[in-house]
Amino acid sequence: MAFRIDQDSELEDIKETLFNSAIKGKWEDVVDLYRRQPRAHKAKMVVSGETALHMAVSAGKDDVVEQLVELISEPKVEALSIGNDRGNTPLHLAASMGNAHMCRYISAIDTRLVAARNREKETPLFLAALHGHTDAFLWLREKCSSNEPYEYCRRGDGKTILHCAIAGEYFDLAILIIDLYEDLVNYVDDKGLTPLHVLASKPTAFRSGTHLHFIERLIYECKSPSITQTTQLNDSEKIANTYYLVAPRTLSVQACIAWPEKQKLE
């Protein structure tokens, strides 16, 4: 019993020293403690549930992150899989920040890390798309299993990376996602909404100021040169145009016309 108490006391001392050093930006001390005390590798803050590695990632300390990962005891994936109170691993945080360098370094340790999900059931790939970070998104995509590529693209509420890219108005990324994951155009979330519904709910994204003007043209004038000449379209109109080319018309395009008006009535 006394030995257990001594161990617990030692761990608490490690935590206090570790996190005080991290908060004060004394990263040399953090690295030194990681080197001397293997128990520091999995030590978590009581308040946030974060490890020192989480904190180094959030602080954007690329060199410190590399040193800490290098010092973590094998199997490294155990410490790298630790989630904070929101379930985010260090790789989740790196993806959210769009730090492609950290994403490369951490995911290279073990590709299973790219499949980790937080409490919202979001993968690191999902968070990169959610925050519009194309470089990090593309790198993480390369690490995703080719057998089930779409498994990384959806979270617990049914929303996909395409829903979120459009909602965040990251239109270049949305077009890229449609190109890479064509089937996502017809995925619906828990409310029954497709990504095009999200686009249709943003009338100011279209030059005309109304979703009906452009989307009706997609349905009734799809052979018009003005539609096929995408160089004349703005980013959101390019998404709608691309969507029309890959999505079944009856499932998505016509439905999205009625949806915003229905929402006004409800």
TrEMBL record:
Gene3D superfamilies for this protein: Ankyrin repeat-containing domain
Pfam family, one: Ank_2
ANK repeats: 48-70, 86-106
Assigned keywords, A-Z: ANK repeat
UniProt xrefs under InterPro entries: Ankyrin_rpt, Ankyrin_rpt-contain_sf
Transmembrane parts of this sequence: none
Domain of life: Eukaryota
Record carries keyword Kinase: no
PANTHER family: ANKYRIN REPEAT PROTEIN, NO MECHANORECEPTOR POTENTIAL C, ISOFORM D-RELATED
The protein, known as: Uncharacterized protein
